[in-house]
Amino acid sequence: MFVSWKRINNQSIGSFKAWRVLADFVFGMFPLILTHFLIDNITIAYKNSQRDLVDGEKTEKSNC
Q1: What is the distance between the alpha carbons of residues 33 and 28, in angstroms, rounded to a whole number?
Q2: pTM of the full predicted structure?
Q3: Rounded distance, CA 22 to CA 49, Å?
Q4: How far apart are CA 57 and CA 63, in angstroms?
Q5: DSSP-derived secondary structure letter, 49
Q6: Under 8 Å CB-to-CB from 56, ≥6 apart: which residues?
Q7: What is the mean pLDDT of residues 38-63?
Q8: Cα–Cα distance for residue pair 42/38, rounded to 1 Å
Q9: What are the Cα distances from residue 35, in Å, to 24, 29, 44, 54, 64?
């Protein structure tokens, strides 16, 4: 039942690297991907909207 410290250390370093890659994705790439799709959905919704309702205030100010 002898366990070498070298083996335990290598396993913990390997799992740390896996967690580090996962953390980099969750806090790095995932917000970028989410922001990309949110901006894309907002621009599509704006393009498909009725401009006179969306820009109503701007139209009122320019008419005065």
Answers
A1: 9
A2: 0.51
A3: 39
A4: 10
A5: S
A6: none
A7: 80
A8: 6
A9: 16, 10, 14, 22, 37
Report the mean per-residue pLDDT for the chain.
77
- The domains of the chain are located at 19-43
Instruction: State yes or no: pLDDT of 39 exceeds 90.
Output: yes
**Residue 1, CB half-sphere, CA atoms under 13 Å: how many?**
0
Instruction: Name the token pair of 56.
Output: 């109503």
Structure confidence by residue, pLDDT tens digits, 4-35 = 555 656 666 667 787 888 888 888 888 899 99
User: Cβ distance 59 to 52 under 8 Å?
Assistant: yes
Which tokens hold the place of 24?
Answer: 């980099």
Q: Is 34 helix (H, G, I), strand (E, B) or coil?
A: helix
